[in-house]
Amino acid sequence: MTETAHARIDEIVELTRRAGDPARAYAILAEGNTSLRTAPGRMLVKATGSSMHTAARHSFVEVDLERYWEAIDEGPDDDDHVKALFEEARTWGHGKPSVESVLHAVCQRLDGVDAVVHTHPIAVNALLCSDRAELLTDGALFPDQIVVMGRHPLLVPYVDPGLPLARATARALDEHLDRHGERPRVIYLRNHGVFALAGTAEEALSITAMTVKSAEVLNGALAVGGPVFLSEEHAARIDTRPDERLRRALLAG
């Protein structure tokens, strides 16, 4: 384990337990996973089969991000190749990295991303498993949604988890960066769940909490008629107001 990983293991345990708190209902059983950047080319990530709620030090492994990035960029994507990747890339720990660790590696490749939380909240998945999933990215309903989640979350179609999903998301992120000039803070995966991308663990938790609130508000708006999104002018104003930028920084911890 790198020195930085040793220093951050307790941080990721706390992050994971908070995100997996049964009272939040973001994930149950062995659902969901988290990652934290350690050394420039390493990350800690939850091992497969472990519960977020009861996470402990042994629930995590450290992996070589460079090895992951090489596999994402080229080569086969079959199950045997992914299994070999997990064995070769693990630098510490005894568990097997989650299959979604490959998508964590895609997120950790982006500037400003240090912490990633992946969950399956019921309110969010109710929309992601419906024919109205696009509404999650069609606009913002209220100011705090913009402050915490940014103006442009990304929606990715359902793809088999592992290298296929990681590659599809990487392509979608390239298109998103070209279109908007900045990375998303939220990635929605159809029929799957949500990834919160952040600079700190606290910010990742705040983003996750706001995705749940936003989905609940959207579900409620649909129940009484339909959503009314903020205008582009008003959304842009919220995104750039000095006081809101300060509040965003404070929420990031």
How would you describe this protein?
With about 250 residues, this protein is an alpha+beta fold. It has helices spanning about 5-20, 65-75, 80-90, 100-110, 120-130, 135-140, 145-150, 165-180, 200-225, 230-240, 240-250, and strands at about 35, 40-45, 60-65, 90, 115-120, 155, 185-190, 195-200. It has one domain (about 5-250): Class II aldolase/adducin N-terminal domain (L-fuculose-1-phosphate Aldolase, 3-Layer(aba) Sandwich). The chain is built from eleven helices and eight strands. The chain has an eight-stranded mixed β-sheet, with helices on both faces. Strand 1 (about 35) and strand 2 form a beta hairpin. The chain starts with a helix and ends with a helix.
Q: Total domains, how many?
A: 1
CATH fold topology: L-fuculose-1-phosphate Aldolase
CATH superfamily: Class II aldolase/adducin N-terminal domain
Dominant shape: globular
User: Spans with pLDDT under 50 lasting ≥5 residues?
Assistant: none
Q: What percent of residues adopt helix (DSSP H or I)?
A: 40-55%
The total of helices stands at 11
Q: At CATH's second level, what is the architecture?
A: 3-Layer(aba) Sandwich
Mean pLDDT across all residues, rounded?
94
Distance between the termini: 26 Å
Strand content: 5-15%
Largest sheet: 8 strands, mixed
Helix-strand sequence? HEEEHHEHEHHHEHEEHHH
Q: What order do the strands of the largest sheet run in, or round the barrel if closed?
A: 4-3-2-1-5-8-7-6
Radius of gyration: 18 Å
- List how many beta strands DSSP finds: 8
